[in-house]
Design a protein that fits this description.
six-stranded mixed β-sheet; four-stranded antiparallel β-sheet; 253 residues; alpha+beta
């Protein structure tokens, strides 16, 4: 009963119980922290091209290239239990068949790390910084010119102007021109250190002190129609010829 093995098992069981209870308390404590995310998305430009969207595409099809503006404040989603935030923008448009749900395609995404994730503090890093302090001589400090300090946005602040998309939009039908009622929407996924993942809540919805996103959706716009004449409608990179595409501006529905 009082052997070394039994004592080790008791200590290990007590440790795991304390760790499990601590994790539950940390995961539930963030529910009392208010969350009030807000975002504004605007269409800057949209182009529809017929060609091969990827080098491995077996056939030519229509694909869209969307530029956008994004101004978002997601700082309230970060707390002591937030590891990182996965953010994306989707383009939503009606399907070809009325009986099918709307089609969605991601055009941009990003991973935003918390401060503790960007600058982790562990016993190893503390020991390494202590043993290897930064070296700077008096002469170097006298001769060095003061550098301009760059303003670094807080985690969760996004300010993108005329941003290029990471991904082009294609449809299973191979046609995107003249598609109407297209909108851009912001979404995210909060990844905590411990606890469950949380996803986007739309405007008007909420859960306790957590509010849905204010804004986060662009005005509806229409995809332009192709105006290219001839059989070869694919833009060739580096050919020196202007890219033949159709362009459109946002329209208010």
């Amino acid at each position: 009963m009082h052997s070394a093995l039994v004592r080790v098992q008791n200590v290990f069981g007590f440790f795991t119980t304390v760790a499990f209870v601590t994790a539950i308390v940390v995961a539930l404590s963030v529910t009392v922290i208010p969350q009030t995310p807000s975002a504004s998305i605007g269409l800057r430009n949209v182009q529809v091209v017929k060609g091969r969207p990827h080098y491995h595409s077996p056939k030519k099809e229509e694909y869209a290239h969307i530029r956008f503006d994004l101004d978002a404040d997601l700082t309230s989603l970060f707390n002591w239990n937030t590891k990182q935030l996965f953010v994306w923008i989707t383009a939503t448009y009606p399907s070809r068949k009325a009986s099918e749900p709307p089609s969605q395609a991601i055009i941009w995404d990003a991973i935003i790390n918390s401060e503790s994730q960007k600058n982790p503090s562990t016993p190893f890093t503390v020991y390494s910084d202590y043993m290897n302090p930064p070296k700077s001589s008096i002469k170097a400090r006298r001769t060095s010119k003061p550098k301009k300090q760059e303003v670094e946005l807080a985690p969760g602040l996004l300010q993108l102007k005329n941003s290029k998309p990471k991904y082009q939009i294609t449809d299973i039908s191979g046609q995107l021109s003249s598609t109407s009622n297209v909108t851009l929407e912001l979404g995210w996924n909060v990844q905590p250190w411990v606890g469950a993942l949380t996803w986007t809540m739309e405007q008007g919805k909420g859960r306790g002190r957590w509010k849905g996103v204010k804004g986060g959706r662009s005005k509806a716009f229409d995809m332009p129609a192709l105006k290219v004449k001839g059989t070869n409608q694919e833009a060739v990179k580096g050919s020196g010829k202007p890219e033949k595409v159709a362009e459109a501006s946002p329209i208010v529905k």
